[in-house]
């Protein structure tokens, strides 16, 4: 084994890339859960976003349009979940699972003729001044634009939940939907919007995998990333900024094990590949979750 | 305007009718999907749902129904206990894999000795493997309050890697010329789970029927079954009735893990034959659909497992005869669960028309 082959700067830089799909999917789910809805279909929305984004990007040649397509794809799929859970009052756990199974099948069907094609690349861009700083430059400021879009969304969500009136309403709906309803807020409308935002973010996260990280389409390519995103929301105690910590921790483990595989460590490859999932479990155990939103996972039915 | 009004009690008629309506809706939507894919919709639906049972080659497909249905029924029966009590073990796929690995390992350890004791030992190992794998999320939930959904699911991915490592390393056939995969257990008499290969009968089919009967008795006649149902409907009432919620979590996880592990063992020692990288085909996830479609009721699960097995077999026929993509079947199975959840609103709510209906 040759540990010196691992370049710490490259390692930290690829950590940010590895964490981005998780950040995108998790921040969307965080908003959904803060509105009191538990959507376990993140994996299904992510993979649908991955295939939608890939198809749009290949056909238009523009990764940007691909990401937009992925967000729309994810949001449309999430509306199916929203319709069932909010209007037909179905069980959220079961419906989320159904969404994942459905999304996996749907994406496999849609992506059939796109296997083995390479995705169009983002045009090279360079952030002036910041990108030229030694050490920090390559780690933080030499990535594709979506890395920063992900971070921007996290900051925006944080500000939205903390400072805006709409964010306050969203939190009220999530904490106690009966009270929010009594105050005259439209519980279902708020939740539908949150669910769609979650779907769009999950779609973006999926597209980041198929367009930037891999960049190819393969069946089942999200490989549990959506579930890890769900775990990270719990880890973050439903707080946007802590979400970054969780995602980078996860990204770190992923990147480190890939590097160790490449460096030819004595542990078999399969055991190294387990480590991100084991790390997620360990994190769930060690970090006692904070208080979940009060109405999380409960259906709301106003008429009585 | 259309309004929903909560029924004082779930409608019995709709409880039975909802799965049937969901199947019909799935057939209609599936037909539209097939038409969109450029296949003749009616012919494709007929190929999937009727040909395996009634065509001239049905004698060949009917045994397959038992082979595909048995693991689905076995896993779904186990899941139904937890689902009723609000304990969501969705990592049955992982428990299925680990059960198969443990059971196969015991069988391979005895190779080439012949003894009638080997197969029972394998079954025990398979069950224990599944139980241990399911106990991880169970104990973590009880001790640390971690979410069993996420942990059990993470362990599926861990189990898949473990399976790869076993197929490529520890359990690889030493006479297999370096190819991945273990010795063929189905061809090793003492370890084979086949009773009659031509009839599709193996011990997993027998176990599935026994599980259905046991589950039926336990749920309808036994104190434990009552506790499970009570905990699902009202956790607070269950606590006053003296139900230990932690014990309930462990027992429900144990039952589902054990049955999933057993299903894995019967599969690896019979229809699959060997531990290989692509041994698992998603039965653990499809069983979730089976459990819901069967209304978490043992008899219902048996019927639902038969129906899902039918879509697997019919899907394969449609794939080879009509060129239907395999993913379309997977999509249709997901659609079925969606429609079921959608129709289920009628079980718990009444539809009312007009504005003043819900005052």
UniProtKB/TrEMBL annotation, chain A:
Segments crossing the lipid bilayer: 6-28, 40-58, 64-84, 96-115, 145-161, 192-211, 217-236, 243-260
Keyword Transmembrane attached: yes
Source organism of the structure: Yoonia tamlensis
Xref: Pfam families: BPD_transp_2 (PF02653)
InterPro entries from the UniProt entry: ABC_transp_permease
Lineage, broadest ranks: Bacteria, Pseudomonadati, Pseudomonadota, Alphaproteobacteria, Rhodobacterales
Entry keyword annotation includes Transcription regulation: no
GO molecular function: transmembrane transporter activity
Topology class, membrane: Multi-pass membrane protein
GO cellular component, one term: plasma membrane
Keyword field: Cell membrane, Membrane, Transmembrane, Transmembrane helix
Protein name in UniProt: Nucleoside ABC transporter membrane protein
Location in the cell: Cell membrane
From TrEMBL, chain B:
Molecular function terms, GO-annotated: transmembrane transporter activity
Cellular component per GO, a single term: plasma membrane
Keywords per UniProt: Cell membrane, Membrane, Transmembrane, Transmembrane helix
UniProt key word 4Fe-4S: no
Keyword hit for Aminoacyl-tRNA synthetase: no
Subcellular location: Cell membrane
Transmembrane intervals: 12-37, 65-83, 95-111, 117-137, 149-171, 200-219, 247-266, 272-292, 299-315, 327-346
Topological type in the membrane: Multi-pass membrane protein
Protein name: Nucleoside ABC transporter membrane protein
Species of origin: Yoonia tamlensis
